[in-house]
């Protein structure tokens, strides 16, 4: 009888796999323990597919809702006109081509404010969002695999990035609210939104990185990548994630100077 009691006391109960809702909550409450638990079980596609689908649908809807604000519409139109004028001055298009493009802005905006425009906006955001998501995840995977010698797979990077999207959704929602309150398109929750600076200035770029929600999300991503790759120390992963965030943003910032339509990716 005593032997049986001792045996049962020494046995460790088997850990149960967390449900997706538990993982979602854990990302906010205890990300380190949550990712440690996830690493013990096979990768679940739902852990990255669901949050990524939700966040890109949310982004598409917020963009469509923003176009219902008159001030936002005027600002967007003005930016496009300035872009065409700049392309004319740089010899990238003729004045006649620019005039035709400007004439079509109102029709395009009116169309995008309709139901078909909403659908196109959401679907296109999903498609290009997923492409961008897969490319960034691939870059993380290659750097982790060959520089940090991580043990995880590409799917592990997808899971870490996908689950972190739940935090980014807060940024999307706040950005949508600020867009209506400020009457201008707000893409993030950074200091740059509240300081009047020249569009496209390097100072504005660096102020856009002073963003509490982004810093929170990238910190959780670094923890997730470290835990899913069974790393003993997370420091290298923090350095990797934040370096890629800054350098990647700078790359798109300077490319945006050459190709204006890329400017929106600088964040």
UniProtKB/TrEMBL annotation:
Protein's name in the database: DUF2680 domain-containing protein
Residues spanning the signal sequence: none
InterPro entries assigned: Yip1_dom
Record field: transmembrane: 48-66, 118-144, 156-182, 237-259
Domain Yip1: 25-254
Membrane-protein topology: Multi-pass membrane protein
GO cellular component: membrane
Family annotation (Pfam families): Yip1 (PF04893)
Keywords per UniProt: Membrane, Transmembrane, Transmembrane helix
Positions of region (Disordered): 1-21
Predominant place of localization: membrane
Composition bias, Polar residues: 1-16
Compartment(s): Membrane
